[in-house]
Amino acid sequence: MADIEITEHSERHTAGVRAQIPMAGLTDFFSRAFVETMGVLQAQGVSPTGAPFGKYYGRPDEMVDVEAGFPVAATITPAGAVTPGILPGGSVVQAIHIGSYDTMERTYAEIERFFRDAKLTPSDVMWENYLTDPAAEQDPAKWRTQICWPAK
Fold first, then answer.
1. Residue 40: CB atoms within 10 Å
2. 16 CB neighbour count, 10 Å cutoff
3. Angle value at C-alpha 1, between 125 and 7, nearest 5 degrees
4. What global pTM score does this model have?
5. Is the pLDDT of residue 45 over 80?
6. Tens digit of pLDDT for each residue in 76-96?
7. How many CA atoms lie within 13 A of 132 on its CB side?
8. Whether 21 contacts 29, CB under 8 Å
């Protein structure tokens, strides 16, 4: 069971790539988006201010409307597919998922139950902060992902 809490987040600038893709293509999309975004940030002399993220517009299904990139200190100049964006501020229900990305469904179910029990309405947008780099930690049981789901 995940520890779930309500917290206040400040709005954060981001740089990333947004696409509508099949769920099966998510891993390849993230890899490409992170590499492309980091290249643009380096070219503009900008450093990420936090962990990489994946932002979902609506509930993922067979097709996913997703943005992947990095938080940054200020608005970047768009370049290629990389555009500026925002992670919203306000009340956010968040949890730390420990384990493989394949098991995140369970943590999301717990968060949805939390919303119902607290009589809160989830936003149409949610994001994940990838706190563990799978290239550095190859044991998926040790991966940590922060799930952030704003409340309306």
1. 22
2. 27
3. 45
4. 0.94
5. yes
6. 999 999 999 999 999 999 999
7. 19
8. yes
The tokens of 91 are what? 């009340």
Q: Residue type for 80, please?
A: G
Q: Between β-strands 53-57 and 125-130, what pairing exists: parallel, antiparallel or unpaired?
A: antiparallel
CATH of the domain at 9: 3.20.80.10
Q: Which domain holds residue 26?
A: 4-150
Q: Which residues pair with 98 in a beta bridge?
A: 144
Cα distances (Å, whole numbers) of residue 21 to 8, 17, 25, 30, 58: 31, 12, 6, 11, 13
DSSP letter for each residue of 4-67 = EEEEEE--EEEEEEEEEEEGGGHHHHHHHHHHHHHHHHHHTT---SS--EEEEES--SSEEEEE
Number of domains in the chain: 1
CA torsion sign for 131, 146, 100, 15 is: negative
pLDDT in tens, 142-151: 999 999 999 9
